[in-house]
């Protein structure tokens, strides 16, 4: 190699690639910074609420505001259960949310399979009418649903807390769109092997839809867990059948000005939903990415 070869200028294409790589790295760093800032904005209120639950009550509204109080009162979380049937509220919410989620999953997956994979006369027209119910606000249905619960004799029962919202169109639409993204060849091959619609649904379609089912399960669980208006109306004996949102609303009256205990109760109420989202995080990301991509 001659000395002239050692000083050969780098080809322009290679230089452009290096510049493009540097730009991509800068964009990646900026994207990470934006994500971290957004995460900080969303997490900051939760962090402040947690430390507020550990403050003495007289320092809750101190000016200027402080993140940490003069004392760290972990006993606030234990003292919550001494004010009213808070443990009963948690148990009722867990039962209603879990039972309601199971009912919604059964109804939505079977209805979604009927609308998305089976062929029957008037299927699309019925589906459009079914989707039209999404445009009706839930508040409009409160009085008719309460009357129906009275006719059934279900007022102040667990059935009234679970079944009225177990047959919504959202879950059916979500599962239908996901089912339509599954190759039809799998179903045809199962039919050739002698599998009927029920067996095909249970052994082929449903196992391939775990991510979509996880998404629907989380959304439904959160909906039941956070429901306030309907349990407030249909429940009479709050001490026995009250759910957590209703309990938190009455908690202010029970504790007077004990805002520290109210904040501790709110933190405790977030624990089950947080655990659920963490456990199903992988399925949630996959399900949200894949749901709704089918179009056949």
Describe the structure.
This protein is mostly helical and 296 residues long. It is 70% helix and 0% strand. It has 16 helices and no strands. It has helices at 3-6, 12-52, 75-79, 86-116, 123-132, 142-152, 158-162, 169-180, 184-192, 197-205, 210-226, 229-234, 238-241, 244-255, 259-279, 281-290. Helix 4 packs antiparallel against helix 14. Residues 1-8, 13-19 and 292-296 have low confidence and may be disordered. It is found in: Cell membrane. Residues 90-280 form the ABC transmembrane type-1 domain. The chain crosses the membrane at residues 28-51, 94-115, 127-146, 158-179, 261-280.
Q: What are the defining features of this structure?
A:
single chain, 296 residues, mainly alpha, 16 helices, disordered C terminus
What secondary-structure arrangement, pairings included, does this model have?
Layout: H1 3-6, H2 12-52, H3 75-79, H4 86-116, H5 123-132, H6 142-152, H7 158-162, H8 169-180, H9 184-192, H10 197-205, H11 210-226, H12 229-234, H13 238-241, H14 244-255, H15 259-279, H16 281-290
Helix pairs in contact: 2-15, 4-8, 4-11, 4-14, 8-11, 9-10, 11-16, 14-15
Protein name: Carbohydrate ABC transporter permease
Membrane topology: Multi-pass membrane protein
Keywords: Cell membrane, Membrane, Transmembrane, Transmembrane helix, Transport
């Amino acid at each position: 190699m001659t000395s002239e070869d050692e000083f050969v200028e780098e080809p322009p294409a290679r230089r452009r690639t290096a510049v493009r790589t540097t730009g991509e790295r800068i964009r990646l760093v900026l994207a990470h910074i934006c994500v971290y800032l957004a995460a900080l904005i969303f997490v900051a209120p939760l962090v402040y609420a947690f430390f507020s639950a550990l403050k003495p009550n007289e320092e809750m509204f101190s000016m200027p505001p402080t993140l940490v109080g003069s004392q760290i009162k972990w006993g606030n979380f234990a003292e919550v259960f001494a004010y009213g049937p808070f443990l009963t509220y948690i148990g009722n919410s867990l039962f209603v949310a879990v039972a309601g989620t199971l009912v919604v999953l059964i109804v939505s997956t079977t209805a979604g399979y009927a609308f998305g994979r089976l062929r029957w006369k008037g299927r699309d027209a019925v589906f459009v009418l079914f989707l039209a119910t999404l445009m009706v606000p839930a508040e409009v249905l409160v009085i008719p649903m309460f009357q129906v619960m009275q006719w059934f004799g279900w007022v102040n029962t667990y059935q009234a807390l679970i079944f009225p919202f177990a047959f919504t169109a959202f879950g059916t639409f979500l599962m239908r769109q996901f089912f339509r993204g599954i190759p039809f060849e799998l179903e045809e091959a199962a039919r050739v092997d002698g599998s009927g619609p029920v067996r095909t649904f249970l052994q082929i379609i449903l196992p391939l839809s775990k991510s979509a089912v996880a998404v629907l399960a989380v959304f439904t669980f959160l909906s039941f867990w956070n429901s306030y208006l309907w349990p407030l109306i249909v429940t009479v004996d709050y001490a026995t059948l009250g759910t957590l949102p209703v309990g938190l609303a009455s908690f202010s009256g029970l504790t007077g000005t004990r805002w520290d205990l109210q904040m501790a109760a709110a933190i405790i109420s977030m624990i089950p939903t947080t655990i659920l989202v963490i456990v199903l995080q992988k399925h949630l990301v996959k399900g949200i990415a894949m749901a709704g991509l089918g179009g056949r």
